[in-house]
Amino acid sequence: MDVINTIGRRKTSVARIYLAPGKGEITVNKKAIETYFPFDLHQIVVKQPLTLVGEEGNFDIQINVDGGGIKGQAEAARMAIARALCEVNEEHRGALKKEGFLTRDPRMVERKKPGRRKARRRFQFSKR
Description:
The chain is of the alpha+beta class and 128 residues long. The protein contains four helices and five strands, in the order ββββααβαα. Helix 2 runs parallel beside helix 3. Keywords: Ribonucleoprotein, Ribosomal protein.
C-alpha cells in the first residue's frame, strides 16, 4: 500500500493528512498528538474513525492543520482520516458515513453586517 493523501475541512480549518502503514503513530504539525491536542476530548475526536472501523495501531498518520481553532482543527483531521480509511478499504464507508464522519459540516461564523454591532445584534435603542 502506498501513502494516502486526503484533505478535511471544518469552519476555517484545513487538515491535510498522509496515511501510511505503520504502528499507530499520529503526529500533528510535527508534534505528537498529545502535545498538539492537550485535551483528551480532541484526541478522541481525531481517533474516532480509526476506533470505529477497528484500524487503530495499523497506520502512521502525519497531519498538517492550519486555520481556525483547536476544535475545528480536530474535526477537520477526523474528516480527513475518515476519507483516507475509505480509500484503504471501501467496506469502511458505510460505517463512517452512518456516523457522519464523511459529511462536511457547513456551519460557519456569520459575517458582521454594516450598521450592526455583530452579525445580528443591533446597537442599543435610545428613545430620548
